[in-house]
Records
---
Amino acid sequence: MQEPLSERYEPGAIEPVVQAHWDDDKVFKVREDPEREKFYCLCMFPYPSGRLHMGHVRNYTIGDVIARYQRMQGKNVLQPMGWDAFGLPAENAAIENNVPPAQWTRSNIEYMRGQLKRLGFAYDWDRELATCDPDYYRWEQWFFGRLYEKGLVYRATAVVNWDPVDQTVLANEQVIDGCGWRSGAPVERREIPQWFLRITAYADELLDELDRMDDWPDAVRTMQRNWIGRSEGLSIRFALNDASVGGLEELEVFTTRPDTLLGATYMAVAPEHPLALACAENDTALGAFVEECRHQSTSEAVIEKLEKRGMALPVTVRHPLTSEALPVWVANFVLMSYGTGAVMSVPAHDQRDWEFARKYDLAIVPVIADAEGNAPDVTSGAHTERGRTINSGKFDGLDFAAAFDAIATALEREGRAERRVQYRLRDWLVSRQRYWGCPIPVVYDNEGNMQPEAADRLPVTLPEDVAWEGVASPLRSMPDFTATTLADGSPARRETDTFDTFFESSWYFSRFCCADNADGMVDERVDYWMPVDIYIGGIEHAVLHLLYARFFHKAMRDAGLVKSDEPFKRLLTQGMVCKETYFRETAQGRKQYFNPAEVDVETDDKGRVIAARARSDGQPVTIGPVEKMSKSKNNGVDPQALIDRYGADTVRLYTMFAAPPDQSLEWSDSAVEGAFRFLKSLWRLTHEHVSVGPVDALDVTALDDALKDLRRHIHETIVKVSDDVSRRYKFNTAIAAVMELVNHLSRTPADNAAARAVRQEGLDTVVLLLAPIVPHAAHVLWQALGHDEALTDARWPVADENALVREAIELVVQVNGRKRAVVQVAADADKAACEQAALADDNVARFTEGKTVRKIIVVPGKLVNIVVQE
RNA sequence: GCCGGGAUGGCGGAACUGGUAGACGCGCCAGACUCAAAAUCUGGUAUCCGAAAGGAUGUGGGGGUUCGAUUCCCCCUCCCGGUACCA
């Protein structure tokens, strides 16, 4: 039984009904079916922060449009959803509101799940998972054991940010201007034992595979290549001139430019380097400098922007070729965690070395010629290009490769160097000194010897009922958790560190394939679904998450758990959602931000924004830049309020229409109104059409020119939208094309049987093309248009080739590259006919008269350019 | 600092492989309907000159390649993302 279509478009009335139908009939539940082509569509799962933000809405709408489109192609589509549930914000909420992180997280999940359902996403909810659930994390604990057996896990010390007041490790984000964000105390660097995964063992495969990942954006592949940073160079040992200092006899460095070795004029070591520490012991000034460096942040972004500073150490090294004594400096920009913590400096050919040499008046010796073969000018900066060697004695006159080889060979013969491949990529530090994460499944005996927890004793369950005192992880002070026994019953102590949350997000996509498996990490179903056909998420994950996930998947492959080499066949990176900011400066010089919803904007008679006032007091506020929606800038727009007001379809339509997925999107409330208006007018047009009654079958031979044009437009739109959705992922232009078609349909009168038949075809097409984007409205309109099958079972339309044929086309005519006319020619007009039609135009004649035509360029079907002598 | 990306009307954006710059939408202006408002509909809307036809200028700035450049190359400015413990 079909109900008549209501006259008004009321999303609040129809959307819950359509959603209930999807839910009750489990329309989006999928099973493995080897007979059918599968499509695994995945969006990066959310951190359950409290409420959905616009970034989520955008991400999940893009995924849903692709999933629903693939379903209309007849594929077996898996689109799951889950929760990246461990993380720092839950601990912050616990500290602030005294709510246990587990409780806070689970209630956030409840609320956000309701919001996702209200947006009508086509998820198979039976596969839902949360990473804080022991049924999930027990398997990564189990896999950690497998990695340990394979030698891919090790323990070593690493530097962390230490808050001396709160007695806790701080994340880089929690260090503001060198101080702890809560205590305000200057942060110290501290070396503590940490757990690492040997991702560098996979560096070459992670790098080489990128060349074959053609369905990933080039930008992401380039960023990952640069991050891995494979370089071939020479590891050189410089002998110390002074007898053993701090137990050291030589200084080892790695360089990719051994051809510049003769230009090395000094060495630089990290403040934590044993040589620097040894020298600092007997020198108060040096000691003070090293101590000062100990308060420097561990973040690369901060360190690299610091003023480059250093101090000379009271030691020199011997140049391995010339035996010249080179001074050794300690410098704040050399990092102990990179390579050997020491570098050789060639100021003539490295800009950073050059600046340091200038500042401290160290020698600058050019040893590479410029393009003309002359000594380069190094008075205003380093000469960094490769070239032939000069000032290098017997190594003079060689190009890069020859100089590299000659110098490497000479040093190797003396046992002072080896050729080496080095990576910028460092091993993955997976341990965190935090509570709200997956416990690292390791125990220590009374002697401090560690061993992984036995597989049959997993999971190591995180206690969820915790009392929070202070800011440090409560795990350490929970004897019920820390006290345990070994297999032989002897007393032991549990590891209290937890995993980096990237651990959980590195394999959840495989778990979605078999989320209900209680007996193993994954099972054979993973072979049906993996790899993910398209993975959609923010560009900010271009390196870390996406590189860790690739590594983890390969490690799982080598453990025989999955078959694919790469987890994500195609990657779509989404831009940010932005909004203008409004603020006032307070007396202390701080910015007080106003939410756009609390601000009235004044415009001039052209719609230009000229001023803004706070609604609360009517006083002016400063209009700031457009920035990513965030709590700190108070420029977030709550999706819930918009869903309540306009319905899910309008919010979905607007987010898809406002910008292409990979660009940032600037939110505009009035443009949302426009999306709503479009749905209302489509509804009205359909209502008007169906209320007249049944439509005769379409007779394509009985159409006049106007109806033929309209019909061609219908089928051209199918071609355009299909290409936009399936190949280009440009939903904004797809929607624009549908809007144009709807405009054309409503402008063309439907006052006879032929016209009504074309309108029916047009409306059927529009509803099918919009079905993935506005599925609720489309569902109701599809029924109203007389279709018995559910829209979720309908097929994507295919254009009628005959309807696409054109008899005449428009040709642009340029004279010397400037457009002068548009002329009509037959669709099959040859070059001569195009030239003739172009030259015959009156306005073209005005610009060619009395001048010599030198050349005529004809671009078939598009343009004629007549080149004349001026 | 380094790596990656971006900049087009008042605004979001379009122009896909070097071929009509500004599709579509918002906003704004004018008009229709209305007692009025909302809603809806019609027309206009890059800038400058012009009644119009049409012309000139114009895609962050400067240079180059080309018959032709938003698109390709070189230099620069500003903005955004990442920078290994935010996720």
---
Amino acid sequence: MIKFKITNDLNLCLKNLNLKTNDKFVIETQANEEFGDYSSNLAMVLSKLNRMKPYELAEKICAELSKNKDYKKCEIAGPGFLNMTLNISVYQKLLKDIIEKNEMWGASEAGIGKRILLEFVSANPTGPLNIVSARAAAFGDSLCRVMKFVGYDAMREFYINDAGNQVDILAESLELRLREMHGENIGEFPFEAYHGEYVKDLAHRLNTLEGTRVLLLADRERTEHLKDFALEQIHEMQVKSLEKFDVFFDSWVSEKTLRQQGVVEEVLSYLAEADCTYEKEDAIWFCSSKFGDDKDRVLMKADGSITYFVPDLAYHLTKYQRSFDVMIDVLGPDHHGYVPRLKAAIHALKYPEEKLEIIFLQQVNLFDSGEKVKMSKRLGTIVTMDELVDYVGTDATRYFFLDRRPNSHLNFDIELAKKKSNENPVFYCQYAHARICSILKKAKKDKISLKELNPEMLKKLTKPEEITIIKKMLEFPSVLVSIADSREPHRLAAYAYELAGMFHRYYSKYVIVNKKSLVLSMGRLYLIMAVKNVLAVSFKLMGISAPEKM
RNA sequence: GCGCCUGUAGCUCAGUUGGAUAGAGCAUCGGCCUUCUAAGCCGAGGGUCAUGGGUUCGAGUCCCGUCAGGCGUGCCA
């Protein structure tokens, strides 16, 4: 919002000088004091348009801008950068806005009117959620929270692959475990079956509820019953894990339901109508290679069953039919080979490809005491999301998953996440919040009541650290907008960390509560209250708690 | 072989979408508690941004090549 003001001020200067603009110049915040508070590349960007040398143009703008009382200084540097320093009274006034907006500071209408569908986690319903799902949950949920906060109409969706081959294997695994429980010799447990302990737990539960009745059913009925039971149980288990992680989906879409609605046939006929299918070796193929995929893909196998691709494509078409402006898929690292055929089909069916955005999360490695934790699906030594969350806590887990760019591999240091010290960034951030709460309490105890905020209090805030903190908080709204637009929530973690650091440094240098100078104390208390609010908002958007005491 | 991702300090990672002298934390070394939470603060050292070219006023960022690592490349899901 401050950049907005500066942009306006600069445009006014251009207008007064009868100069042309193309709105391509940018305002940047400057960390280096030498270059002022904010700088702009305006002169370089507009020099050709106005047939002037950058430096000359910059000189004119500077002279004009200096007439504005809000600006203390305007200098030209390098090839023609405009370095602007604002009067501190501007910041003092803006602090009042931050405080008045309270927990709505940062909220905006940047995305107003845009409907967004965020699909993430969408784990197979064949076992407990793993740590990649946890990363997806932290990422998708926070992105959604930020998008909503800046005005988008965003919703979370989970696609359940509750049909297909893997579900048959699940039913078979459950049956074997049930038989085994009753002393039957099942031989060696099949390689491709689900080896996790949870299958045994499911068998126990089924046995407690229904005994061995299911084993007496006819083949087909028995499989269906086992499937339904396992799917329902595992779904519930996954929902619980997510809720514990403070992630709630607005919508669940079941592949099985889609199939029952006949969408599979529909998709096949659409593709056939578009003249994109052919028969070869008793199978039906989609000529995806005509649309950029490496090779053609099977839609219907020789045995008459359907591949994973068909219902998934159907699912994506339902997304289009629900008229979103943008649909975002958050996928795991093992899916990137799959996207070309999906995009190919969407293209072939003449749906707008650009509305579908795919974000890949790279794999997660767990490290404990410097050692990589070895995980194997086959050996059943997968660390589940619940285990991780129970061990290090929701706050640390969410923060650590959010802290890194989505498309880079993530090394999760369990030992560090558990540490309650400055080494751990989560605690560093939360500690700042708790500290502020503690100071506010102390002020109350000293009977410093925060009366109505008045200009005299704000005028006391003149230290460079104070102005730096205000500047940082002024950036918050635009940081959130850029997080939403770039789909990069990791920047929120960085922002909170930086703001917390600024506060810690400020705290150690200055006394905030001082009975001898009441007006100053009140000014500073307002400042840290604002910091507390901004921290609390960023924590909320990250899904971590804002402790009052630590 | 082909495709996607990655390569920045000893380690883990940022880098404001192409801006000025590339930044944090950890680790190492040295300081700061009779005063609002030391779960904190201050200081020091540490770099050929994998590499070679190109684009321009300007490149860690964009384009091409090379090298290295990860993943993918089923009539699995």
---
Amino acid sequence: MDKSYSPGDIESRIYAAWEAAGWFAPAGDGTPYCIVIPPPNVTGTLHMGHAFQHTLMDVLTRVHRMDGDRTLWQPGTDHAGIATQMVVERQLAAEGKKRHDLGREQFVERVWAWKEESGGTISRQMRRLGNSVDWSRDRFTMDEGLSDAVREVFVRLHDEGLIYRGKRLVNWDPVLHTALSDLEVLAEPEAGSLWHLRYPLADGSGYMIVATTRPETMLGDVAVAVNPEDERYRHLVGQQVRLPLTGRLIPIIADDYCDPAFGSGCVKITPAHDFNDYEIGKRHALPLINIFTADATLNEEVPAAYRGLDRFEARKRVVADFEAAGLLEKVVPHTLHVPRGDRSGAVLEPWLTDQWYVRIAPLAEPAIAAVEDGRIRFVPDNWSKTYFQWMRNIQDWCISRQLWWGHRIPAWYDEAGNIFVARSEAEAQAAATKQHGKPIALRQDEDVLDTWFSSALWPFSTLGWPQQTNELARFYPTSVLVTGFDIIFFWVARMIMLGLKFQGEVPFREVYITGLIRDEHGNKMSKSKGNIIDPLDLIDGIELEALVAKRTTGLMQPQMKNAIEKATRKQFPQGIPAFGTDAMRFTFAALATMGRDIRFDLGRVEGYRNFCNKLWNAARYVLMNTEEHAADLASGPCEYSVADRWIRGRLGAAVTSVRTHLAGYRFDLAAQALYEFVWYEFCDWYLELSKPVLQGAETDSAARRGTRRTLLEVLEGTLRLLHPLMPFITEEIWQKVGPLAGRKGTTIMLQAYPTAAEFARDATAERDIAALQAVVLGIRQIRGELDVPHSRATPVYVRTDRPGDVEALAALAATIRKLANVESIEIVRSEADLPPCAIAISAGRTVLAPFDRLIDDVSAELARLEKRKAKTGQERDKCAAKLANANFVANAPESVVTQERDRIAEFERQLEQLGEQMRRLAAVAATATER
RNA sequence: GGGCGCAUAGCUCAGCGGUAGAGCACUGCAUUGACAUUGCAGGGGUCCCAAGUUCGAUCCUUGGUGCGCCCACCA
């Protein structure tokens, strides 16, 4: 093995071998375990959030695979209707073309070509991330099979009356020329105005004053509404006003919707361009006057002077004309929520169109029940509240989009406008023929379905439905869904609804909701903020100039360029070093705390890269000490030392901890347990403890064999325990260590995940090693606090009250001497006859080292003891205060009181010892001064 | 308007009804044998504020302050 860990050399080679061997496919006949991937946009690239979620899914997948489950991680990508179409339209725009120049067929071909061209990016990225998905089952939402599923669901829902076509107000994007669902609307507060307009009463007796944020829509007004209880206007209800600029007469009506306290208390009613007004219009049987074209310019319904104007231009003109006519009462500043499309950013227009809807209430009800009764569990649980809140107020889902890229709606029309919903044109034609008595020309609906319609079927469409496949029977319901809270409504809820509807079963049993990955300041990562980190740049590293270029090219707002460049240069003056996949994955796991967003900290990645290096070098040490003894290890008598038995048991404890935490989705705690075991127990203690055994000339061969075997077996078990988090480095090391440890098999990824039973704990060994550690730590403390180099050897005396210590320390004396560079170690009953010493006190044990062998000046030790004494005194006082409280002694549990009594006794003992020691040292110091 | 979350060391975060923790950063010491991507030792906290419950509150309850997110039709 190389002296230094360099991830780049090993990662791609290893992944290729795994993939070629077909090890990612489900195998065996264990319990099925399945995760479906949240399908990323096929033409996109994976960002940090994907890398994070994929890491967690891969960890779960690998653990279950190693545990013998028949494990499937189902991969795939999404066609991402609007997003993808926009990208291709932008490409066309660069060539000076529009999609209509190509026509539908050619345009769609062009999108497919783009999909083929860029579609490999994601799978390449996933391979670099080590994601063990079954590539043989890779699916795309517009694959033939998945499209069959879409049509099947559409037809069946339509047959049941759960899909219908209707003309009503939708959120219209006048830039993209498509309808959007409610979820795709972002309503941000923006500064605007509230215009107070005078509408003259028809009888000329005065004005009504209406307040509006959208004066241009007055051209489509059909009424003025007031609250029926409003004394100011009650007498006017039933009368008419003459609508300025148009001259139309419109009625004054009464409706509870009006809030007398807001504005003037009078509301202009424009049913064709406002959702509230639409409802009021329905209640009062008012006409709808649509004044906008698809571009949101004014149409022929308005007076000639305004036709063809853009809505914002029209606003200025209308306001100016009101002012000119003396009908503008006042204008007050007003912040309002402006609805914008989540893709285009355009201000949306409520617009009257024919669209397809899913009648959602009948589907929502069982989906709510499934979470209520625990068939689906959200982790962390509080996300179920978010789910319920939305599901209980859910609105019908507008599923048609006026786009070209997507699943075309399986509905056909005849000349008369009759609709035939069918799985294919042939089926539609058959129905039409039957109805008309002869074949007839049909025209398919031009619209496509909302991307999320096909995503909603993902857990069963990817498994082969509507075919009744073995995979469907085996893996549905899937085990867990891992995703972000931002798509609970878009995706999770809809999968639950349609899964229950079409499979009669929930689509997954648990939903693990991850936090959002943010930058180090807590900001969302986004291209426009210029704070994106590409996961591959963490793995491979990137030069500063390349990083700056990456962040500043193709910006939507080029004016941000300088600020982004400056911030990037400041944050990464050296660019980003190559940390490797394993370090990045371990970081994600370690940061995956429950229910909390994650500020991504490069320092953590560096720390875990160091951890990889630590593991690498520990393995080198183990191999250096075992490889050439391979034959000898397999046979021959073997004797296990206290340390050998201790470290096996400690690994067992780590196994229990890791398994527990993973079962509860506490990846952070699992990572922490692994880190601590590997670094602090295996490396810091056990490897050091093994050195005297392996390097000492006097050790017998059975003891050497025991330690060598323990080194191998514990390292091998540790590698297996780590593998799901750090697949590459563990595989690389295991290739050498596995066989030496007596393991059969050619890859770590199919080895059994460790169990606690393999590594039994040993209470005696733990007690004895604790004694050893106390002594070694005491000596280190003395040296450390007195700034004495380790190289300065000293005799050591130990006084102990702890049962078993005397025997344990005697047995381990040689080891302690080596570890702590101690000349001799002697157990004493009292300090009285010892030379003046520096001391370290821990519970029940005192470690003493003659100070004249360590330092020249007693005052350093005196100062040190003074500090210790002050600290211990504080603790003692806290304890004493507690025990002085009669209520505490009377009410606290017996064990707590006893514990406090023991503690104070210990503190008193230590204080006394410290005092005694200080007196002795003071005497020595005095003598020294005299001389 | 409704709902959810967060506040602990300089930074990023765990944690817990009884002794406050980690990583990074910081200080001192250490240089031939697994590893300087290292080892050893150390400094550093009003656990946001207030009241309540309790023998005891960083933890539980209530209120407040600050920050963040989601949902919602006040023109």
---
Amino acid sequence: MSTVYDPQAVEADAQASWNETECFRATESGDGEKFYCLAMFPYPSGRLHMGHVRVYTLADVINRYRRLKGYNVMQPMGWDAFGLPAENAAIKNQIPPAKWTDDNIDYMRTQMKRLGFGLDWSREFATCEPEYYHWEQWFFIKMYEKGLVYRKNSVVNWDPVDQTVLANEQVVDGKGWRSEAPVERREMAQWFMKITDYAEELLDELDEMDGWPESVKSMQRNWIGRSEGVEIDFPVNGSDEKLTVFTTRPDTLIGATYVAVAAEHPLAEQAAEDDPDVAQFIERCKQATTAEADLAMMEKEGIATLATVEHPLTGESLPVWVANFVLMEYGSGAVMSVPGHDQRDWEFARKYDIPIVQVIEPVGDESCDLEVEAFVEYGRLLNSGDFDGLTSEDGFNAIADALEAKNLGRRITNYRLRDWGVSRQRYWGCPIPMIHCDDCGVVPVPESDLPVVLPTDVTFEGVRSPLTTMESFLNVDCPRCGKAARRETDTFDTFMESSWYFVRFACPDANSPMVDERAKYWAPVDHYVGGIEHAILHLLYARFYYKLMRDEGLVVGDEPFKRLMMLGMVLQDGKKMSKSAGDAGDPQKLLDRYGADAVRTAMMFAAPPDQSFEWSEAGLEGAMRFLKRFWTLVGDHLENEAGPFEPSELSEAAAALRRKTHETLKRADDDYGRRFQFNTVVSAVMELCNEIRDFKPATAADHGVVREALRTAVLVISPIAPHIAHELWGQLGETDSLVGYPWPAVDEAALVQASVEMVVQVNGKVRGKIEVPTDADQATVLDLAKGSENVARHLKDKTLRKEIVVPNKLVNLVVG
RNA sequence: GCCUGGGUGGCGAAACUGGUAGACGCGCCGGAUUCAAAAUCCGGUUCCUUUGCGGGAGUGUCGGUUCGAGUCCGACCCCAGGUACCA
């Protein structure tokens, strides 16, 4: 054994051995219960950054730990290859997106291999390959035929100078990032998938998902946003039309003093025809982005129209306003306003001198002063005619009944969740397999003509998608009537690819249909690891897609991810890595200098998985030092002859080391398997190594105890630092592969201690420590506590009022 | 704005079920080794006070519950993620 730890040599050897035995290649016939371990696949942005190192190391730790526990583990890797950055690179550097993407994949794959992840590379694919997106197109048409796909108008960010649609990210301070022209809201026909049909199931199932963090379930619940309320019709005066609004507070209906509609609402457009001021206001409303955060923080503005509606219960005439905070995308694009009992309406009414009427009074001691703010709590109805005196709950029902009786309203369940808009006006994505025919309208591409292949030999002229001007792509015969027609040039949202890739990994070569029987063995994913930034969108779309696939008989079960581990962000300059500029996050130079094990150990040791932290190289030296010490510890030990030992005949010091060994084993098992906290596993192994260092073995039996401790340390650290563990395992004379070696049982007898230290508090402050026999009775403990010197001083001349004993932990003596 | 997290020494953190706050590591200080340095090894290291024993304060801020609060409750401040076209 070399006395110097050389990570480059050790790591090359270990990796060669894994490649040779193909120990990470997964098959359905493997021994043990199946375990599908998956980290969210990366977007090939260029080089790995420390955020990637973190997520893939964490997943690999779980992978390797599960193998030690006897599972048949599958851990694949692939590439989420479509996306905006490839197009930006193409526009900037004139490199075709396909080439840019392929180069990035090659570089990142090499880096991943260098990190020693136990991946089954035979399953690798990139989503930009026609063999993959073929099935996405196929499935989309299936869903179209099923009525779960439809087309409607929806708002986009329009850059009037570049004549193109911008992503929210490409809008900076309301201006296009390249043109710097103010963006406009513009409506366009787009494809949608009916995720709202599954809203109830997506919501209700969260309650059963024990393997998901509460915070993520809570975010998804709020995002889906189920609410019970009433849909109310306000007849439009001078027309047969009705203005329909939704409210969760019909108890406040009598207090409605106006209604407000979105700028794109037909009533607003009608009003604009007669009133240039309204027309001008509507134009101004278009000078905004589509981002909800911008809209929610925007100054609330509006303009009155001459139109009025009739209050459905009082018959009173209410003015119709056009307001910038009402959005056509949400519900019906209209709201009723009750300024007395809704804070936003109150502020709006104050600003524009609209009457504020109180129709709810508090029943408890809440303050209510409509001069100061709206009263938004539930209470008792007043100024509401026949409904006066009812509680809000009863008023809700009485008013809903009255509306239903007049056929001007109905109780409904409303969801905040909106249907999934999947159209993107971009080049580097999966072509939407639809054809536009002048005679037949929209016609799906026939199954036999799939896939619609994205041409990769393209040049960017300006910023618009090359597809829009590529005649060879555009021109196609209508599959229905045979006349000349045109292809859809929009591509899919990239969340489409990431919504089912994890099923495809089970059978990456399946070619009819999208997945085969192997998917039923591997899916669902048993442990899914990824960044917290995906808590809502990706995970919700993937859950939805899995249900769609279930309903097609392609997968079994209702949910795609049994256990979910959400990682905090690795920050750089206070920002998430994928957003920060430069390549300071590139791990390459760290791998060259310290090796993969040190990088992996430092990353795992830095923080618990769910916590965000600022990456710093400071921990690398420490990790490297630890690995060197570990190496030397084993080397020194091997100079001695280790013999067998009888646990009951060990010296006190040797028994203490054995106890530490088995405590470490127990703690690590709990941290790996239950708590999913790996920084403390590293600490535990460091502590064990420190105790081995401090132990002075005198006999062959003592060396045997050290051997057991080192063997345990190697096994426990192996999921985190697998290369050095592979080498030291062999050095310690083990001939079986460490990958998948059975995790040893804890010797409970080794954990038993004769006495424990207890803390003695007086009035909650620590005043002494006592050594007592384990599980000593209360009287013995109290006697020892009161007799301890410093404690006795604090008890002197005081009256003992209370004695609290927490067995084997502490005593608290309360004096007055 | 709204939803979800987070805030503990000089720094990364630990404290799992309300029971010794700061394990483990980084950094720093002192020592050994060395001609010297690097590397390595040993010791110390929350702050204030004390020669020492000890005493006091302390987990973002303010308040509460409790024998006892980093942990539970209420209000607030700051930071991060998401906010439907970044992925």
